[in-house]
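Memo to structure team: turn this sequence into structure tokens by end of day. - J.P.
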Amino acid sequence: MIMPADRVQRSFGTSPHVLLVASGYHLYREYLLRMVAASAQIWLFTDAPPTWEHPYIVGHTVVDTLDAAAMIEAARELRTQAPLHGVVCWNEAKMVQTARLAEALGLPGGDPEAVGRCRDKHRTRIALAQAGIGQAASVAVVTLEEARAAAERIGYPVVLKPRSLGASLGVGLVGCAVELEAAFERARCAHGVPSFRAGVLVEEYLQGPEISVDAACHNGVLTPLFVARKVSGFPPYFEETGHSVDGRDPLLHDTELLEVMQGAHRAVGYRDGITHTEIMLTEQGPKIIEINARLGGDLIPYVGYLATGIDPGRVAVDVACGVTPRVGEPRPGVAAVRFLYPECDVVAGDVEIDAAQLPPSVHAVGALAAPGQALLLPPKGNVACRYAYAIAVADSLGHCQSALDVASRATCLRIERHLAEELTVA
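Reply from structure team:
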């Protein structure tokens, strides 16, 4: 089904025409759709009729976005009406299908094998090992017995994770053999698309500051956009509770880091598109945690934009259309995002924000939870248990963190009921 949008210019203009495969959750991705729309005419491939997306698109096709063949057929029909210059996607579960779509259309970024190596963390590990790129030791396992043997071989503590999921879902640190069975079940039962017989990875525990780097690839040349410093919580799990970006971060010009990243992308065969690479800065040097063939989540690209002025939407359009990315010199700003969590498992009521308390350096505060929503802390839940976010922009990380402290106090979650009490009564 092909339908025009309601509240935008109906005719295709002179800017590039791109297909967007799946828009995502508006609270985390609307800013990105808005940025892409400023640089291109967007036709949306979506599983259900659009709602909030209408102001940013020229039209849409309702199609199964997990079905590459169906999208290829729909795109070829669309091409009889208008040219298509690129395909954009930031949904982890749909990256391989999007690559197959781009390949079928003869558009940049169409290398399903390279995207598949990024999507499958075990295949990433194999490719990096063959190229001698620094990373964690890793073993793919099927059974608990295999997991025990791998953990003994690697040495505790180890990290157990699902082979193909994101957002740290099912990931946990295991300190000893007694803890292994529960962690194995959490990783094994964290379902996603695709699934694998050897679906759990047992990995070496890397220590050091953790960062992520969003970068643009064009003809095999890697251009870092921004470095995000990660804040994690809820040990032994790896819940990402915040991120900060400094436009003056020295890692943007760190030769060793850039060589490791370039080598890692070369190893997996990724030449055109956007990536979000997670890296641990160990005493032995930078080591790759994973490479994602998409822009980062958790509002990281927006925080990066606020800090550096680099527009991730424009860059995504450039590389999707085979154009040298317009990046420019980052401005020397600092921005940070913090996510707010309840103290225990609850059913949310209203989220109330006292705007009068917020200092000028608080850029935005927004609710993420709706009344009646169950908020389950790790390991029962993960990012879906956040009830709000706050973003600050200032001249230093310290000033950002101070502003976020104020924003956190000014944001109140009204609790409908405590789930722990219900479980106790039951």
